[in-house]
Amino acid sequence: MLDDFFIRALAAGVGLAITVGPLGCLVVWRRMAYFGDTMAHSALLGVALSLLMDLNLTLSVFAVAAMVSVLLLLLQKRGTLSTDALLGILSHATLAIGLVLVSFMTWVRIDLVGFLFGDILAVSRGDVDLVWGGGILVLFAVVRLWRPLVASTVNPELAEAEGLEPERARLVFMLLMALVIAIAMKVVGILLITSLLIIPAATARRFSASPEAMAVAASLVGTVAVVGGLFGSLTFDTPSGPSIVVAALALFVASLLTRPRPALRQGDPA
Amino acid sequence: MLQTNTRTAAPLVSLTGVGVRRQGRWLVRGVEFSIAPGEIVTLIGPNGSGKSTTAKAAIGVLKPDEGSVARKAGLKVGYVPQKLSVDWTMPLTVERLMTLTAPLKRAEIDAALAATGIRHLARAEVQHLSGGEFQRALLSRAIARKPDLLVLDEPVQGVDFSGEIALYDLIKTIRNTTGCGILLISHDLHVVMAETDTVICLNGHVCCRGTPQAVSRSPEYLRLFGARAGQTLAFYQHHHDHTHLPDGRVLHADGSITEDCRPDDGRHDLLPTGGRAGPMRIVHTHGPDCGCGQHPAPGGEAGGERRDA
């Protein structure tokens, strides 16, 4: 029989995989992988602040990630540096400030590796509830805002001209990303969150005929990766977070070896 | 013209003294025009003359830094942007592109695709379309939602000559059947759609305006392009009396150089409504709203042909 902790890990992992599927697709379509990374890195600053000021960990991580995304929006509006460079600055600055703050707090013993790589086998019942509760909230918002999100991904000016308020969709998207990072941190850790967003989405691309199909497929691929990775980590006694990412990568490589679905070629001229 | 009477209706959008400024430079300034239901307005002008900027200001994508834009309440816009690239990571069929900004009925999608002649491509991925096919898909998408105002930024780019004529025919049909207003940006400085009611030539400001019909019926034109093209395309013949220098200053015909170019800077011969005469030659048929300001009396546009010189 499986142990309780393993069941909880499965429940949390699967819940997270389903949640990040559609968001991961949006990150891939919008070419925002590095943005996801930046927000994830800023999570460590959130951890440090939560310890320093005795705040709720998830809330504090969410607040810092959201602040970083707002800061990015403001810096982008000033338009002096490329988004690329801004992300590089914010990403490593927040990570470094987080690490420095943690080192000052000699009175707390902090499991840095746990935050960086996650410890899904240690999730509590409360964590599982958080993943599913937060996940349902995120999915509800994504479904409601799906059309503006997809339309503004294709062309923000088109979406604006036809009355879809792309700025609002973008803001909500960033807040949802911050929420997902706050939730996902315990499962796969700060350094691997982006991979759970991107690899299932990239894998799903080859089997999908529409944005909606790709979003669902990404959730399914993520779920298979979580289950496969957890059982792999149990079997080979490997760290669970990285094992999940390796499983996702294996699925992606397998997808590269398959032929694209025929309909993909249907529209080829000549 | 077919839609003359509808143009007495309230304008769908009207721009008054609109200017857009970016990083200390005026992209466009002092733009005035309006589009009524059933009217086709074509913007022409050299690269960087502010055509797309003006169109974006008209539909509210850009906020003007001076002047004002008034849009009819609840105005439904169909927009074909100048540049649109769909990242290959997004699986998007032509069919799905149609419902990008609003849901549509199956029959509406089919009708719009059939109108542009790409119904057979409904299930093709947009990344696999040729330039011309993609333009047709974008146009289908914009017309399928039955807009009040259709804004087409270089809709015939990448389309071959006969395809261009077919698309202009289609745009004319859309206007005649739905009575929507159309703001068209032409990629060609001299050839515009013959059905255009008003041509506005931009070069950072409104250089001149008029209607193109007279020229399209000229024998020289018909000999050059053939009678079929003559029904669809028209010359808009004009030349400018000043040049915009790379550094943003303006070289006038008299050799003087000024910092910028405003209709009211005294260096342009002014017409009452902002249209201009002087060294510029506007060859056009006058109508109640040809915009040249010289012939306020109403009259049939197809009838009283006169030539400005």
Automatic annotation (TrEMBL), chain A:
Compartments where found: Cell membrane
The protein's name: High-affinity zinc uptake system membrane protein ZnuB
Entry similarity comment: Belongs to the ABC-3 integral membrane protein family.
Function: Involved in the high-affinity zinc uptake transport system.
Membrane topology type: Multi-pass membrane protein
Membrane spanning residue stretches: 6-29, 41-74, 86-108, 128-146, 171-201, 213-234, 240-257
Record keywords: Cell membrane, Ion transport, Membrane, Transmembrane, Transmembrane helix, Transport, Zinc, Zinc transport
Coarse class of the protein's main subcellular location: membrane
Automatic annotation (TrEMBL), chain B:
Domain of life: Bacteria
Start and end residues of each ABC transporter domain: 13-228
Coiled-coil regions listed in the entry: none
Keywords: ATP-binding, Cell membrane, Ion transport, Membrane, Nucleotide-binding, Translocase, Transport, Zinc, Zinc transport
Ranges for region Disordered: 288-309
Matching Pfam families: ABC_tran
GO molecular function: ATP binding
Database matches in SUPFAM superfamilies: P-loop containing nucleoside triphosphate hydrolases
Keyword check for RNA-binding: no
Cross-referenced SMART domains: AAA
UniProt KW Cell membrane keyword: yes
InterPro entries (UniProt xref): AAA+_ATPase, ABC_transporter-like_ATP-bd, ABC_transporter-like_CS, Metal_Ion_Import_ABC, P-loop_NTPase
Family membership: Belongs to the ABC transporter superfamily.
Entry protein name: ATP-binding cassette domain-containing protein
Organism expressing this protein natively: Shinella pollutisoli
